[in-house]
Amino acid sequence: MKAIFSKPLLDAGVFLWYNFQISAYSLLIKGVYYLMSKKHTKRSSFSGKLGFVLSAAGASVGLGNIWRFPYLAAKYGGGIFLLIYILLALTFGYTMIVAETSIGRMTKKSPVGAYHTFGKSGWFSFGGWINAVIPILIVPYYSVIGGWVIRYLFGYLTGQGAQLAENGNFSAFISNGAATEICFIAFAFFTLFIIYAGVRNGIERVSKFMMPILIVLSVIIAGYSMTRPGAGAGIKYFLVPNVENFSWMTVVTAMGQMFYSLSIAMGILITFGSYMKRDVSIEASTGNVEVFDTAIAIMAGLMIIPAVFAFTGGDPDTLQAGPALMFITIPKVFASMGFGSIAGVLFFLLVLFAAVTSSIALTESAVSTFEDELGWSRKKATVMIGGIMLVLGTLSCLGYGPLANVTIIGMQFLDFFDFLTNSVMMPIAAIATCLLVSRVIGIKRIEEEVLHGEGKFHRKQVFNIMVQYLCPVFAVIILISSVANAFGWISM
Length: 492
Description:
Blueprint: H1 7-34, H2 49-60, H3 63-75, H4 79-107, H5 111-116, H6 122-157, H7 161-164, H8 169-174, H9 177-197, H10 199-226, H11 232-239, H12 248-262, H13 268-274, H14 282-312, H15 322-335, H16 340-374, H17 378-398, H18 413-441, H19 443-451, H20 460-486
């Protein structure tokens, strides 16, 4: 097997890696000392509806759509999974987006401050902080995966498509601590640069540029995938519901996917809602985000499932979860295709854009918390988040290499952070949000907030039933089933 990087490049990478970390940690120590002074600044805002919709859609459209949704759809029934997911997006997802966005715009604060607006007891502090801590824990390991995407995009751009498809290539790459660290730092700094530029000049401007390109790329790649010989069986399996493929786990996993796909229960939508102007329709904006997210999820399924079906002769079991799908199976599929290198460039460019739009949303939520709760400037908050990303992201980078023998409850660092945030903290955050809306704020105040900028709350009854009764129950089911699956008590 060929080396992932040449020896001179590796030596240079190791040198840069260690020297950068020394400089970065020194900067972090100086930064912490400097960050103690408080500075209150005027709250930023999106320019209008389009800015909010594209930014919120960018937060929603991420790696969860592209590598998780197709795998779950293939494993849990294809078309019937897709149908249930769409129904949940129109009910569960809709309710959580409206609730979180309304809380944010109502209070004009990030999660901690938003919860404290309605009380500062232990319960309110816990609800606010769990929403605030989730993105702080997610964005470091998310940036590590973003670095992997950069490596594969670079590989296809430089004609290494055949090498990327070789057995053992991905394992060799992620076990190389210096190589993964360099790619991680590149992705993290790009994210931080956008955040430093601000809400309108950074997040909104990048989202307006990347989201349309992402949509065009998804259409091109899906069209290419669906026209491969033998892809028809995959298209039928994914789009045509078959009740014989239905099971209770189809519903449970579709519910779990909602958190990944719509960025709910991460504090992001509360933060973005706080940037929303009063004359912008919450309900109409929510509908647009739903359409964006669901459309990209469907396009991801059409990009991957037909191609893998064509490559394997129609075996859905070959669609593996997470990194195995994106960095092992998909390169093999591209290697078997005509124009596979071009497809690889387009695909990983699309994935990079999706990863960036989600990472800036996660980072912005974290930065906003520091700005609001500690009175720091955006510059100070960005420096601090950068330091946290560097420390936790480095652990995730090294977790498959030099620190591979160090595990937490049997998981490498990246897998543990993913389990902790997505399987434990996010369902709890969703429950806290539902309780805050239904028991403290009240449906009436949410309705009043939604009615600003529009004449009618069109799905009011759906919202009322879901937020008071069904969403908390769904979140509890997801929490219990995810934890039970992680400890091997059940198989999902």
